[in-house]
Write a structure and sequence with these properties.
The protein is α/β, with parallel strands linked by helices. It is built from 23 helices and 31 strands. Bound molecules: zinc ion (2 copies).
Length: 775
Amino acid sequence: MVAPLPSSPASSDMVLRVRGVVQGVGFRPFVHRVATRLGLRGWVRNDSEGVLIRAAGPAPAVEELVRALSEDAPPAARVRELEARPAGEDDPGPAASFTIAPSGPGRLPVATAIPPDLALCRDCRSELLDPHDRRHRYPFINCTQCGPRYSILERLPYDRPNTTMRAFRMCPACAAEYADAGRRRFHAQPNACPACGPRIALRAASGAELEAEAALSGAVGVLCRGGVLAVKGIGGYHLMVDAANESAVAELRRRKRRDEKPFAVMFPGLAAVRLAAETSAESEALLNSPAAPVVLLRRRPGAALAPALAPRNPWVGALLAYSPLHVLLLAAFGRPVVATSGNLAEEPLCTDENEAHARLAGIADAFLDHNRPIAHPVDDSVVRLSAAGPIRLRRARGYAPFPLRLPRRIEGCWLCVGAQMKSTVAVAARDYVALSPHIGDLEAAATREVFQRTVSMLGEIHGSDFTGVVCDRHPDYASTRYARATGLPCVAVQHHLAHVLACLLEHRREADGILGVAWDGTGFGEDGTVWGGEFLLLRKGEARRFARLRPFRLPGGEAAVRDGRRCALGLAHAAGHAGLGALGRRLGFSDAEAGLLGSMLARGINSPVTTSAGRLFDAVGALLGLGDHNRFEGQIPLALEAAASGRAGAAPDLPLPLRPVPSGGGAAAELDWEPLIAALEAGLLGGRDPAELAASFHVALANGIAAAAREAGAGTVALSGGCFQNALLLDLTSAALGAEGFEVLVPRELPPNDGAIAAGQALGALWGLTTVQPG
Ligand SMILES: [Zn+2]
Ligand SMILES: [Zn+2]
């Protein structure tokens, strides 16, 4: 222990606390470089709260360091908080120079941001391709600016012994780089080279095994022959086939038992993307960003991509080769490949060689494996662009688990278990909430296992026992059952309220003077019906159901979620149309089917009441003949959006009036879709183009939301829920609200869909805002 320096106006000795994403992004080497340049003495170290620095020297130099911490930090770092205090007796003293000290203890009752996995950086890419570099063509090259992070992290702090890289002992050359503050790999935890690091191997179903360059060329051979290649990447396995080979793509679809859900396509570089799809400066920047997400782009007519990639879908989900292994593979193959998650149907991603070989045995012809263990599965993130910026459809690799800040400290440590279909879980402690990457649909037992592993991992990483749990109000969600079974104090937050709260969380707004528009497919309402077209008015910390879509019934319940034609019959029934036979025939039902559905509706048998906007989209898609089934979630709405894109400007206005609901009706007002449906039907009879009618439908919804906002009288409108994955609806609604002077909050950091529910639940628990009162 060294006493603090005598303080004088000319010298300063401070302890600086930095919080945010500051581990695993080259932050300590950066601090070391700056402090050394400024001639400061002291140390920097990681601990469970982030980074702690002691800096002693001339006062202006210490001030310069403080400035540099927030302004010059490495690109992947995010400094959220910076606190400074004078050094005291208890602080370990500064040595004669500035050093990187060993990390502090990991299990403190606090936690820090866990760094996300980062795509191959420019410097490492040039070394990878440099024949004179010792890592020439080494598939695991990385540095402090790039490489795996969350996917190899087992506990905090982020140091090599706490990652799956601990099994690899660094060779003298790597160890020297790791210890040299002047080099790019100073304290790069996954640092490795061909002599000491992970290796690849190609394993064929025949049992043949190839290594290194032979493995790569063997893998390219599999793709060239039209085979299915399983490739172990950063957060799990991909299944890859030649994206231009129609029969290979169709065969992958058949083996994976995947109907029509689009496959993502990995491209060797931007030039190849530009040939296949329309790009912009913004989409190219996203593709090239350290997160390297899948970006939805409009496919060019005549692009050399197999139609089976995304049947009847004008978009293509494009991503760039982002790990060095992907870069080498794609460069050797020379063309884009399908890169879909390595799983069967809706099961979770495979991460382990043995597991992959067993589960993907009937799907992959060969496996390109490596021996760097993956600690947690992480899917590719998916982003699309709207006029106002990117919408994160799936928040996973590169983004999660970056935490969001709570507006104030929460007592204890809360586990938020989210929803069901796009499951994510979150931990709220102190003043932050850390949201896991996308987990998947909890319907599958294997996904529920990943859910449980994610919960234990978050508990482990955050180093404290959970004091409570927050869940959805839906009694049959697997997450709700899990929450109830923990025996912990349990709080249930209404689904659509959680959507709105997630939006407020990321925009750091209070629950006052806000109209939350929560439009999605399905959520459990306070009155036991299926909600999904909700307007929640938030005032002074309370939520009321100000308005809703006019209710209708879904004949067959779940069956109507897959069959938009049933939703159309539900609308006709609610509108009081006598006899559904003619409509049923037009929609392709037999008279017997239409009769059965009609009597189910009339008697209310297995025909739940809903206000779902998602189901309204399904019904309209079926009525306009643009799509009758959701073979994957959101297929009909996507077809409606695709048809309407580019036509909204010229689309005639159609009515969607807001009408008062008699008191005791549950909401103050409702948007009545009946005149809108009648106008669409009349347009269709009059020979109007269904695509133009689809555009009019979108415009009517946007105007309807604006009408509800005028009536509600709140100055700010928060848009949330899965319907706002629809970029056209989001843009039209934002524009309609903006034109009338409303402030509009839209999901940016978090997905609009159920992937954000866990984050919203955290805010609900903090504020004790869990219930929606009747309007
Ligand atoms: Zn790098
Ligand atoms: Zn080495």
